[in-house]
Amino acid sequence: MPDAAHDVALTVNGTSYRGTIEARMLLSDFLRHELKLAGTHVGCEHGVCGACTVLLDGAPVRSCLMFAVQANGSTLSTIEGLASASGDLSPLQAAMHEHHGLQCGYCTPGILMTMTAFLREHTSPSEDEVREALSGNLCRCTGYQNIVDAVLKAAETMRAAAP
């Protein structure tokens, strides 16, 4: 017997979506397979690695632990929506590039989404605060120092640009 279908309406990266989806479809699968937004990566499928992190109404969530129907009525942001419409990188993306904060890149979308939310609330973070905020995102390649440096640089850039 197929899963029950549910109507959903949500906004993803500024675009409204309405449709019918299976009740048991994970948010990560919805983003990747229904909306073709493959930047949200699925690593552990247990919510431990953080690769699938997206912003739900501005808060970071693990999309592999959430059903898509739970996002009904919400606003989602994924890595595809982080740069401006003209393609300009966000200060965090630019700093990650400048400071070589990625290697294989698999964890990067989740880290960027986590740190985007973090920097909204912590405009002048310390290195220890950045490391604590990163603790839910696993990276097997970098050793984190360049990521930490990039987040600190992004915070500095964002403070300088603030009115």
TrEMBL record:
2Fe-2S ferredoxin-type domain span: 6-82
Keywords (A to Z) from UniProt: 2Fe-2S, Iron, Iron-sulfur, Metal-binding, Oxidoreductase
Signal sequence annotation: none
Domain of life from the UniProt record: Bacteria
Pfam families from the UniProt entry: Fer2 (PF00111), Fer2_2 (PF01799)
UniProt KW Metal-binding keyword: yes
Molecular function in Gene Ontology: 2 iron, 2 sulfur cluster binding; metal ion binding; oxidoreductase activity
Stored PANTHER family: OXIDOREDUCTASE WITH IRON-SULFUR SUBUNIT
Protein name (Swiss-Prot/TrEMBL): Carbon-monoxide dehydrogenase small subunit
Lineage of the organism: Bacteria, Pseudomonadati, Pseudomonadota, Alphaproteobacteria, Hyphomicrobiales
